[in-house]
Amino acid sequence: MENKDTYAIGQAGVKWGSAEKTQWLALQNVKRSYADDVLSQLDALGNQFDIKEYANLDYVSGSFPLFVLRNLNWDPSKPNVLVTGGVHGYETSGVHGALRFAATASQDFQDRFNLLIVPCVSPWAYETINRWNPNAVDPNRSFCINSPAPESAALINLVSGLEFLMHIDLHETTDTDNSEFRPALGARDAVEHKEWAIPDGFYAVGDTLKPCHEFQKAIIESVEKVTHIAPADESGRLIGETLQQKGVINYATKALGLCAGLTNAQFVSTTEVYPDSPKVDAENCIQAQVAAVTGALDYVSTLLS
């Protein structure tokens, strides 16, 4: 279905310039606190993780320290695993799912893996409930050389020189993708974006070049113990992409500059939770993210034994 509404900023058919981006930024406001919701949880994790500030984002609206959690018994002989959340700051359960995993289930895996957990890649977007950063740049299309997003560049720098066996990136697909973020994208880039049917339920996104069928299946089987899996639409697709198996589609992660393409990990997945479903609440969405991480790690663990 086409989105025929005209976005409030800019002129149809004309890409945004600095004036339009400034106008967009002026409309954004703080809706929640990164310090209260995220940073406040880090102290309690200090007995399990080495917690370091890996960068600081300086924006006109303020400074945002970025933190990484690294398990205390880091062992170069163990495989490295990367867990990221909040690349899109508005996708709440990605942030809190990463934090919940760190606080609970991570203890079951620290003897087998080196865990690197970045719970909130985009704190300004977390506070303003946004997909973009203040410069109207999408961090999850900016994991590339000379990244235009400081959030993405900081994470690229953090993992530089490290090899990872697995990377799972925690996301959501929300109703606001159609009502706000895709219309804004169309206006910014002067292109037409059709609305897509928002999948009701959890799904996973694999890497087109290394889809890892059994790995994705293990994630789905773990998650469906706590919440429902999104069915395909009438054309057998999810958000316009062909269904590869139950609850799984694939994207070209590196070509698109996605966070899931950040490393050369053998096992890669992006989770997608649907928080607007009448079948779930915020707690269930967090549980789904944790189940995705643990399902992924359980599967990779079997290959190491």
Automatic annotation (TrEMBL):
Task: Cite the GO molecular-function annotations of the record.
Answer: metallocarboxypeptidase activity; zinc ion binding
Q: Which organism is it from?
A: Paraglaciecola psychrophila 170
Organism domain of life? Bacteria
Residue ranges annotated for the Peptidase M14 domain, each copy included: 30-285
Q: Belongs to which family?
A: Belongs to the peptidase M14 family.
**SUPFAM superfamilies this protein is in?**
Zn-dependent exopeptidases (SSF53187)
Q: Which InterPro entries match?
A: Peptidase_M14
A GO BP term here is: proteolysis
PROSITE patterns to which the protein is assigned, alphabetical? PEPTIDASE_M14
What does the organism's lineage look like at the top?
Answer: Bacteria, Pseudomonadati, Pseudomonadota, Gammaproteobacteria, Alteromonadales
User: What protein is this chain from?
Assistant: Peptidase M14 domain-containing protein
